[in-house]
Amino acid sequence: MSRFSTFAILSLAAGLLAASPASAADPVRIGIAAPFSGSAATYGQDTKQGAELAADEINAKGGILGGRKIELVFEDDKGSPQGGVAAVQKLMSVERVNAITGGTNSSVVLAESSVTRNKVLHVNAAAQADAITDQGSPWLFQVNNTVSGNSSAFNDYIVTTMKPKSVAYMGENTEFNKTVLELLKEKLKGAGIELVNVSTYDAETNDFTSIITKIKSLNPDMLYVADAYPARAAQLWKQVRQLGGFSKEVMSPGVIVPGMLKPAEGAMDGVITGEIFMVPAPSPEAKAFIEAFNKKWNGNPGKGHLVIYEAVHLIAAAMDKAGTEKDYAKISQTIRDNAWPSPRGELKFDAKGRARAPYFFIQQVKGGVLTQLEVAKVN
Fold it and tell me: Does domain 148-275+361-377 have CATH number 1.10.10.10?
């Protein structure tokens, strides 16, 4: 072998060795698809704030996998299934992320999951539809409660505490709302409470006066609204007030956020709902999260901030424990085999990849903010 060839081989080997530490130091990229435009954009802002707090905490402690930092890559899902598919496709094929999270609206996450299935770790942070994890995708997890989990606790409160004589329902025709309605019907029937009306509308609806007028003519004791898009829901409740309102008013659990209450301009006062998280919170872990959020963002967090914060921490901790950011089967099994600390306490995931909150808060809007009525255990 010539001296030139020997030199070339040694140089190549030295170059490869020199490249190894740089490769090991590459960040672990987490893609976040969320609505940063459209009628659900306030959810996107919550998602960004919660995710950045989690990444800051992880990186301040040295990162994962021997010192690799977490890098967040955000993509706008536009609050639509088509936008969600485009967002995750870009995150996977162009941005080459190591995991996907985010997700606020169920129809959007359902569409996204058809793209991510068996291709990348996917942790749905906020969308609630049971259908998302009913698919049995081995690399798909859900941090927020499902619709059935939230509805069980909330519907119990309706029939045992509020005890309406009759109920009228209105909501958008989505996968999320279909399950809300099915569970409500079942609970009301079992309690002998009449469901006098069901009115659904499409995503483009912004004038609800004809629906509300029809419901008013039936004189129900309670109005139940199911709508997970903050800007549209705020408009809906303004129109309810303009037409006189109802003696008892409730809204599907898990959807009311400050970005809905502010544009409602007081129109939601008196509305009762439910949620898995509330400020003030019952545990030291939750208090620490609230304090950290206040320090970074100068305000109190909501459920939207919490679940994405938990999702980013879960992805990072599971990858670190599994010793890999690419072996999704190993990471997923690690998630299922362990309990994960969070501001709500330990999160454990069932065979379908679902976590469940230990507490459920019954809330009422008063003076434009959510106030606590009682705490219920989730069945």
Answer: no
